[in-house]
Amino acid sequence: MARYARVTTCAWGPGPPTGGEDPVESNLRQAGEVLDRAALDGGDLIVLSELCAHRHLPAQVAHERAEPVPGPITERLGEVARRHGCHLVFGMYERAGEHVHNTAILLGRDGHVIGAYRKLFPTPGELEEGVVPGVEVPAFETDFGRVGMAICWDLHFPREVGWPLAEAGAQLICWPSMYQGGFQLRVWAYLFGAYVVSAWGGQVCEIIDMNATPLAATNYGYPFASADLNFDREVFLRATAREKWEAIRERYGERITLELMHAQGTFSVGSEDAELSVAQIAEEFGLDRRVPYYAQCRALREEALRRAGRG
C-alpha cells in the first residue's frame, strides 16, 4: 500500500557561541531554532549534521562532555521532536562506560530514542583523539519504514557499512556528515536500493531515491529541502523478469509507479494504491528482490568453488 513520509534535510551547522554561552547549550539552542524552521515543511523526519550537539569544542573537551544515550541531550532535542510530532536524526558524542563514540541518534515522534548508530569508521584523526569505532550496523523500525544511518567517513566503506544496511532492510539511509558526499551518495542509493538523505553544514544537502535520482536539494539561498518518499517501493532484477515488468504495468496501470533502469538491469515498483502492496505484486509475478538475489549469487559462487576444490 502506498506509504508516504515527508523527509527534510537541513544544510546547517551551529555557529560559534556568543556572549559567553556554553557551547553545548548554544548548539542545542540553535538546533531547536533550526528545527522549528524546518518543521514548517511538515516533515515526518528531519535530519541534522554530524556531531552538531558538540561543535565548537576542542576534541578533548568535547569527549569530556560526551553524554549517555538516552541522556540530557537526547531529552532536550526530544522535546523539539515531540513538539512537532516528527522523527529526528542528529549527531553527538556518546559516552558508553569508558568509551566515547561518534554517534547518530534517531528520535521518534514522542521524543524518545528509537535507536543509535556508532560510526563504524572514524577518521584516522578521530581514532588518534580517542573515538572508539562502532561494531554494529542496525536499521530501525519507524511508523513509515526502516531507517538506517551512516556517518561521514563511513561513505568510503560500502562493503562494511552500506551492504549491512541493505541486508538489514534499511529503506532510508540518513547520512549526517562534515562534507558533501557528491556522486557517492547516488552510488549508495542505487547499490543498496534505499533512499539516501545527506545533512552537513555546507550549502548542498540532497535527498536521493533508490534509482539514484536526486529528488530535492538545498541551495545557496535556502538551507532546507524536503521530499515525499513512498516507502512501499522496491527494486527488482530485470534479468529474471524480462517479460514481467510490462505485464505488471498493463495489469496495474496508474495504481503503481514503475521505473525501468534498462542499462543497470533493474526496475523499481511503487504502490500508489491503498489496497495494493508491492509485496503482493512481487509474489504474484515471482519477482526477485535485488539484495537477496545477490546474496543467493554469493552463496552459489561459494558452493561452486567448494565443488571445484577451491573453497
Short structural summary:
By secondary structure, the protein is of the alpha/beta class. It has 9 helices and 15 strands. It has 2 domains: 4-230, Carbon-nitrogen hydrolase (Nitrilase/N-carbamoyl-D-aminoacid amidohydrolase, 4-Layer Sandwich); 233-295.
Summarize the helix and strand pattern as letters: EHEHHEEEHEEHEHEEEEEHEEHH
Q: Any idea of the CATH class of the largest domain? A: Alpha Beta
> Averaging pLDDT over every residue, what do you get?
96
Oligomer: single chain
The strand order across the widest sheet is 5-4-3-2-1-12
Helix content: 25-40%
Uncertain ranges? none
Structural class, by secondary structure, is: alpha/beta
| The named CATH superfamily of the largest domain | Carbon-nitrogen hydrolase
CATH topology of the largest domain: Nitrilase/N-carbamoyl-D-aminoacid amidohydrolase
Q: Which CATH architecture of the largest domain would you pick?
A: 4-Layer Sandwich
Beta-strand content estimate: 25-35%
**Domain tally:** 2
Tally of DSSP helical segments: 9
Distance between the termini: 43 Å
Rg from Cα: 21 Å
Give the strand tally. 15
User: Which word captures the global form?
Assistant: globular
Biggest β-sheet, characterized? 6 strands, mixed
Main attributes of the structure:
311 residues, alpha/beta, Nitrilase/N-carbamoyl-D-aminoacid amidohydrolase, 2 domains, six-stranded mixed beta sheet, 9 helices, 27% strand
Word description of this protein:
The chain is an alpha/beta fold. The chain has two domains: 4-230, Nitrilase/N-carbamoyl-D-aminoacid amidohydrolase; 233-295. The chain has nine helices and 15 strands. The mean pLDDT is 96.
